[in-house]
């Protein structure tokens, strides 16, 4: 990472698009965008071999700005579109950028079954705990008792643990970090890009303009400091008593397994059937 030129990000942007971008001041989406680009650059992946797919939401504007092959698709359907791309051209690196509402609510079924199939997609879920683009409604990851425009007296629903959901569905690579831990994020994305199977990285992110304001979290800098102070690396968790871990964001690679990948299994099936004359 240290050998990557500081302005490498500019080489991967579409400068004919409308800049500055549409994200609010202090939003973590730009941090994640930078981490993705630096991870891609560190692996020397040809940008023509990358497809970035998104659905609808704040984070889903990202493909508009990057000089990869891109698809900006329907709400909750980014993984479905990405699956079609991967099945048609398995050699491509397919990155899905999504949010907690887009991925875990309307898109939840697609997440579950892509993980179950172990199809080689790299899903980066930017989790800001709220529907930021459409007015600040509760999302599946809005914490219990947190405030949203649809929960002015506090959220009474329990929230999803996205990483546990993905692992339960069968994802072979699952990791979590925060927008504060940029080098850690880049390393995880780099690992995911090299992993031959379904990969999910949850990036706990700041939405200071809506979630932060409604929940009195302070500005963007304060929210990032909170991520620093209220998270623990997985190695530390194993050494601490439960009361020291409760309420903390657990960071690290939670699962990394090599299992048969769906597109490769499908290609092998087709070859076998063709060899046997279709019988």
From TrEMBL:
Highest taxon, organism lineage: Bacteria
MF-aspect GO terms: 2-oxoglutarate synthase activity; thiamine pyrophosphate binding
Example GO BP: small molecule metabolic process
Top class in the EC scheme: oxidoreductase
Keyword terms, alphabetized: Oxidoreductase
Gene3D superfamilies in the cross-refs: 3.40.50.970
The keyword rRNA-binding is annotated on this UniProt entry: no
The protein's Enzyme Commission number: 1.2.7.3
InterPro entries: 2-oxoacid:Fd_oxidoreductase, THDP-binding, TPP_enzyme_TPP-bd
Domain Thiamine pyrophosphate enzyme TPP-binding: 56-203
PANTHER family: 2-OXOGLUTARATE OXIDOREDUCTASE SUBUNIT KORB-RELATED, 2-OXOGLUTARATE SYNTHASE SUBUNIT KORB
Designated name of the protein: 2-oxoglutarate ferredoxin oxidoreductase, beta chain
């Amino acid at each position: 990472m240290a050998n990557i030129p500081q302005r490498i990000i500019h080489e991967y942007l579409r400068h004919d698009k409308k800049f500055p971008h549409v994200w609010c001041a202090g939003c973590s989406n730009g941090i994640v965008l930078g981490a993705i680009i630096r991870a891609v650059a560190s692996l020397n992946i040809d940008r023509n071999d990358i497809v970035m797919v998104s659905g609808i939401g704040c984070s889903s504007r990202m493909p508009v700005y990057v000089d990869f092959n891109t698809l900006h698709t329907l709400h909750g359907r980014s993984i479905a579109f990405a699956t079609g791309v991967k099945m048609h051209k398995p050699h491509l690196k397919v990155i899905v950028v999504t949010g907690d509402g887009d991925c875990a609510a309307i898109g939840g079924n697609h997440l579950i079954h892509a993980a179950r199939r172990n199809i080689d997609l790299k899903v980066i879920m930017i989790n800001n705990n709220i529907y930021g683009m459409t007015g600040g409604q509760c999302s599946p990851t809005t914490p219990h008792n947190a405030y949203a425009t649809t929960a002015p007296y506090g959220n009474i629903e329990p929230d999803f643990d996205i990483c546990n959901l993905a692992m339960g569905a069968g994802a072979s690579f699952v990791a979590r970090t925060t927008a504060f831990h940029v080098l850690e994020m880049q390393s995880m994305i780099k690992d995911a890009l090299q992993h031959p199977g379904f990969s999910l990285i949850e990036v706990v992110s700041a939405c200071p303009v809506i979630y932060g304001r409604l929940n009195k979290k302070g500005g963007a800098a304060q929210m990032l400091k909170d991520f620093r102070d209220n998270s623990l690396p997985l190695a530390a968790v194993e050494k601490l008593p439960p009361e020291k871990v409760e309420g903390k964001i657990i960071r690290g690679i939670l699962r990394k397994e090599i299992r048969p990948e769906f597109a490769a299994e499908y290609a092998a099936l087709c070859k076998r059937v063709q060899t046997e004359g279709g019988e």
